[in-house]
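Tokens for chain A. Residues wanted.
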């Protein structure tokens, strides 16, 4: 059996650690044949999601139906995927220790049991509860349908009347099971992922917020916790509410976030190099920034939704969009930029004024109205 070490793990900030704790994944297949062909699995890959993209960080040969990955464990458990099948993948939590996958049928990798470390054991327990809920729901629904009179079984309206109450009962049982499990495992980082992918779709934002508030502070540094908080803030976005945090990289490659400027007013300007109305706002922004020369209480944070770096940088240079209080960031993801979702941006230009406490003051300020508002803010700091 050949062991293959992670090749690109050090390049992924979320899964590095100064102490270099190790993880080992031992996988075993009861059958290596793929689902939709007669071929066998000969190689598997370990993927991690970086900025929404799957990145292969290791490969391993399959020998005697077995494979092994070894690598540096992350500071906090993160999800990775074992791929190489034609019918899905296997989700694992990377963390210190020995992780056991299977034995499983390569034709149905999503059914593989993953155990051996705290997070994987916890998540497997949740999956078992979830599967039990599904089976119990099927039994309840089957009993309900059996109560429909034979002469009415082909009437869809009658069937709907019978099964609707059972549907709601099944949904309630599922919600209770999730809440009970989350409550009993608040200390596990796995709960963050369960809140994200199982609780958030089934509950309103207030309920999700209540569970986030119940999490211990040790969970607050996890990237998934920050993502969940941002989603709550985005759902409640309005004037007077706390703004979600957005992050991007400067033209120099430095990562900056809205939260880095707490204590100052921040004028967020969503724009793109190809957007003519956006470019018409440049003179107004320059007027404000010239006025702010002796002030330090206002920052213009220009968030570009360009997808091509050369277009973004060329526009900044051509239009001389530079000032000590003018910060440019982007993720170069175009309309797929996460910040657009968080601020519900449907078109550019779009602006948001944030106060020193991180709360929204106003949306869609432009032109002379924007100049007047921002000059008043600058003046208030000089009094």
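Reply:
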């Amino acid at each position: 059996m050949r062991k293959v070490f992670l090749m690109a793990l050090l390049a992924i900030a979320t899964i590095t650690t100064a102490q270099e704790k190790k993880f080992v994944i031992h996988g075993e297949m009861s059958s290596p044949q793929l689902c939709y062909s007669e071929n066998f699995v000969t190689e598997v890959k370990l993927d991690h999601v970086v900025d929404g993209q799957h990145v292969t960080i290791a490969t391993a040969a399959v020998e005697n139906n077995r494979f092994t990955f070894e690598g540096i464990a992350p500071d906090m458990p993160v999800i990775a995927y074992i791929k190489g099948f034609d019918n899905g993948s296997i989700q694992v939590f990377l963390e210190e220790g020995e992780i056991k996958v299977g034995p499983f049928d390569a034709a149905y990798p999503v059914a593989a049991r993953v155990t051996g470390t705290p997070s994987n054991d916890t998540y497997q327990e949740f999956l078992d509860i979830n599967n039990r809920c599904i089976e119990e729901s099927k039994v309840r629904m089957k009993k309900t349908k059996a109560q429909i009179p034979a002469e009415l079984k082909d009437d869809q309206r009658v069937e709907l009347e019978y099964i609707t109450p059972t549907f709601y009962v099944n949904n309630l049982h599922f919600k209770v099971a999730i809440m009970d499990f989350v409550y009993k495992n608040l200390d596990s980082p796995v709960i963050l992922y369960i809140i994200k992918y199982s609780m958030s779709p089934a509950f309103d934002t207030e309920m999700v917020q209540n569970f986030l508030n119940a999490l211990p502070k040790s969970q607050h540094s996890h990237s998934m916790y920050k993502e969940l908080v941002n989603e709550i803030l985005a759902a409640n976005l309005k004037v007077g509410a706390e703004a979600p945090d957005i992050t991007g990289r400067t033209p120099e490659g430095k990562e900056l976030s809205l939260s880095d400027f707490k204590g100052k007013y921040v004028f967020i300007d969503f724009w793109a190099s190809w957007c003519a109305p956006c470019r018409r706002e440049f003179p107004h922004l320059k007027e404000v920034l010239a006025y702010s020369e002796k002030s330090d209480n206002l920052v213009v944070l220009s968030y570009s939704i360009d997808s091509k770096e050369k277009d973004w940088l060329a526009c900044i240079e051509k239009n001389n969009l530079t000032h000590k209080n003018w910060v440019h960031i982007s993720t170069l993801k175009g309309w797929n930029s996460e910040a657009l979702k968080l601020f519900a941006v449907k078109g550019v230009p779009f602006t948001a004024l944030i106060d020193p406490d991180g709360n929204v003051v106003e949306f869609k300020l432009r032109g002379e109205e924007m100049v007047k508002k921002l000059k008043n803010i600058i003046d208030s700091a000089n009094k």
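The domain at 3-112 is CATH 2.60.40 (Immunoglobulin-like). The longest helix spans residues 118-146.
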